[in-house]
Amino acid sequence: MNNRMIYLPFGILAILLLAAVLWVSVTLLFFGALSTAFTKMGFSWSDALLLLAFSLVGAGMNLPLFTMESKVPVVRETFIRSFGMVYRVPVVKTLTNETTVAVNVGGALIPVLVSTYLLVAYPQVAPFALVGTVIVALVTNSVARPIKGLGIATPLFIPPLAAALSALVLTAAFCPIPECRFVTAYVGGVLGTLIGADLLNLNRISDLGAPVASIGGAGTFDGIFMTGVIAVLIV
User: Fold this and answer.
1) Nearest CA-CA partner of 230 in 4, 30, 61, 28
2) What is the rounded CA–CA span in Å between residue 154 and residue 219?
3) Using CA atoms, how far apart are residues 174 and 163, in angstroms rounded to an integer?
4) Which of 10, 27, 103, 181 might form a disulfide with 14, Cβ 3.0–4.6 angstroms?
5) Domain residues of the chain, as ranges?
6) How many CA atoms lie within 13 A of 175 on its CB side?
7) What is the pLDDT of residue 154?
8) Which CA distances in Å does 173 have to 40, 124, 166, 176, 177?
């Protein structure tokens, strides 16, 4: 009974190497899934990788739009927990009690540009995508929650599920081209989440005490960017 029954089967260096291999494998699978979502909408693999790279780099870039007077003291914390996730809040060092409203390049600007391109490239899909946008906006607005110090946050999976289901229903009988449901899912997911989570809640920003309310950033980077990607992968 004195024999050791619990022990490491490998040396510590081998375990670290296996952990590194696992991390790289998971990362490659993640990037592969994201790239696959873009190729389903008609982009080449090289274009998909470029869009993905720009989106990830742009996730750290917030372009200021305007400032508004905060009705409550501005929170100085840099990390906020919401819906089981921890978000890093971009903090502007200022002595004034103001909230800076900004747009996140990777989380909002690039997805909106991609959506605009898809609507132009597939004009026959536009009516379905716009109806899907309205549906997702209503669903997202109903589940979006204002988080003190952060802004507007959304659950990760409800908006993409709404985008995927609406795309399947809208395109099942009336849109025969193969890209139709993918474009409808992506555009509806991106624009619907942007409208439902951010634009329809701009009037609530001044009550949250957030130093920076980033459209498409912090709590909604996953909401806008990932909604479109996950919706395409589901359909």
Assistant:
1) 30
2) 7
3) 17
4) 10
5) 60-234
6) 22
7) 80
8) 20, 14, 13, 7, 11
